[in-house]
Every structure is written in structure tokens, then in C-alpha cells.
């Protein structure tokens, strides 16, 4: 009803097609040298990602992102053109996901750029999907490949070699890592998939993969009081990531479990509806990978590895279970 230009925005409360709606709110902050630097991301990429991270949080509740407030603290050395490019990326993401930027704040910063975005969304009353609903027997799924963003960051840091010039996408294309770099710079939240899955009524928990698959799986396990058993062979492995991992001498599983910033969804769904849900998403060109099951037991996350492998005991010739550490990206470690 009233956007940027007054002391506050005024929005009309939306009406749901299938009943009353509830507001869903999320906030995320990106800080230069913590989340990005000049070598890894251009200004427009920073703007895109700052909004996309919040859009993904709304999707993880089964909601629809609607409005955004953007607070930017800009170093005095920045020229206006750089700030415009930041907002170009942010508005491009907003257009992609139907978000209206309705206000915010701009201040100076002593040294680093800080971008804080708050997104307001809606969800049908009583239908928000939480982390705490997983039940034994459910299937565990993700809505896209994992580990690509971490691999892209690894390439960018290596290509930059400590320099401050942004690594061009052409360099990534030449190295066969363009998809990895784009996954890091411009993640694509699973909004459509989330809405389709939530509407089925069989999804019992959702979480977005921001800090790493293992960390998010632990959050669901602890919130729901269950054990998540993930099968290594079913984790979606990108071909370009596998090729880059081989060249780099790094096990791709490390990026997949602990890399983070993929912004796909991790969730659980009633096993009886898993195949039909996957088919429904596939019909819309949306991926859904079944990667494990929910089991009874103490809260935890295990990885099922299939064998035999060198060094395995005879008892573990076919498969073995490995407890996954509760770790991912942590600002304070």
C-alpha cells in the first residue's frame, strides 16, 4: 500500500485461497571477509545471495516470500556505482521470487560491507512445516545437489591466489567449474518445490541447507527426537563437483556433508507418498532425491556406507554405519 519514501512501509494483509494466513519472518546477515570477499563475489552476487538466503528460510517453513527490508552498512571508500550493483543483484533475486523490497536502512561502515535482509512471508494458518515433525518410517529427501557451493568457493579461493580481484566466470567456465561457482554466488532456493510439497500434507519436517547437510540433519533429529539414517550412495553428487574434487584431491563427501550454503531443502516425508511426491516434482522439472530414512532411537545422524572397502572388517563387508559429527559452518569456532 505504501513503499519506500515514508518512515515505514504499509502492506495489506494478504488473504489465503484456502483459509487464513500467518506471517513468517526471517532475517539473515552477510559480512564482508566472513561470508564473502572481493575475490569470490561481485557486488551483484552479494546482493542476490543476501536475499536468497532469507527466501530459502521462508521456503523451509512451506511459506511464500512476500516483502523484504534491506539494511546496508557501506564502507566510506565505496563509490555509488558499487552500491548500485549490489542492489541490481538484490532486485534481480527479488524479481525471480516475487519479493517486494519495501524499505530498509543505509549507514556507513568503518571498513567492511554488511548487508542484513529481513524477509516477511505467509503460510496457511497452522500449516507451517517445522523441524520437529519427523517420525520413524519417514523417508529423508533433499531438493537438489549438495556440496556444489563449497566446491565453488574452494575453486574461487584457489583461483584468486590471495588476490583481491573478483575471479571472472570465464575462468570458471574454462576450468569446468562454472556450475559450482554459480551455486556459490547465486543459489536458487527451492520455493516452488517447498510449496508443492507442503500442499501434499505428507511432509513432516523441513530445513534449508545453509550450514551443511550434517548440521541440518542433526537439527531435525534433535528437534524431532529421532535418528536420521542417510545412505551415502543416494546423496546427489554433481558430475562437475566430482570431477573437480578428483583434480583437487579432495573427497567430495566432505563438501556434501559439511560445506553448506547450498540452500536446497532437507526434509522428511511419509514413506507412502515419497514416490508420488518425487514424480509430481519431476513433472514440473524439479528435483527430489530420497537419501535415507527416519528411525527410532536417540537423536542422531548416521551415514550408511556400502562396501566392501579396504580396511573394513568382515562383519562390515556389505555396509557399515558411521555416526556423523554435529558440525557445519559455525561463526564462533
Automatic annotation (TrEMBL):
Residues holding Mg(2+) 4: 7, 57
Residue numbers binding Mg(2+) 1: 28, 105
Keyword Ribosomal protein: no
Record GO terms (molecular function): thiamine-phosphate kinase activity
Top-level taxon: Bacteria
Binding of Mg(2+) 2, residues: 28, 57
Domain PurM-like N-terminal: 5-123
UniProt keywords, alphabetically: ATP-binding, Kinase, Magnesium, Metal-binding, Nucleotide-binding, Thiamine biosynthesis, Transferase
Pathway: Cofactor biosynthesis; thiamine diphosphate biosynthesis; thiamine diphosphate from thiamine phosphate: step 1/1
Catalysis: reaction(s): thiamine phosphate + ATP = thiamine diphosphate + ADP
Record function comment: Catalyzes the ATP-dependent phosphorylation of thiamine-monophosphate (TMP) to form thiamine-pyrophosphate (TPP), the active form of vitamin B1.
Full protein name: Thiamine-monophosphate kinase
